[in-house]
Amino acid sequence: MTHSTANTTGAKTPQRQRTRTLERVMLALAIISFVGLNGSAIGFCIQHGPDAKLFFTSWFANWPSSQLFGDIGVVLVAFWAWAIGDHRRTRTPYWWLLFPVSILVGIGCGIPLYLWLRERQLRLDDDAAPSG
Asked: How far apart are the first and last CA of the chain?
């Protein structure tokens, strides 16, 4: 699979630079989300103890939080469906990490992680493509 960013000189094109920048942004967002979401869960456990029932029932404490949970659930399923199809086209390595990371950490970590893996693979494909 080739993409339009390969060139004959091997020099960095503006497209390659944008791709590397996007890779860095997605990786940074995945790391920030991982730390933030886990920090929030740890904070809950410090305040309430490891009470899984309280943790999960808090998601439905009122209508706005229930609506938000439902909205995020739809986003999660839609992104998973898209990522499965996208993986078939791009052959993104470790794409399956999207599922456990999204469930165990959060969709806010899973999406940028997948997008980082995807952009990295697309760049590597471009770098390996024959020039000319």
From this structure: 15
Residue tagged 């730390």 (tokens) = 35
What are the structure tokens assigned to 108, written together? 């806010």
Domain boundaries, the chain: 14-128
Each residue's pLDDT tens digit, 75-93:
999 999 999 999 999 999 9
pLDDT of residue 126: 85
The more confident residue out of 128 and 39 is: 39
| 12 C-beta neighbours (distance < 10 Å), count | 12
Residues 16-40, mean pLDDT to the nearest whole number: 91
Amino acid letter, 34: F
Tokens representing 50 are: 């490891």
Structure tokens at 119: 């952009």
Angstrom CA distances, 55 to 9, 41, 47, 51, 52, stand at 55, 9, 11, 6, 5
Under DSSP, the state recorded for 97 is G
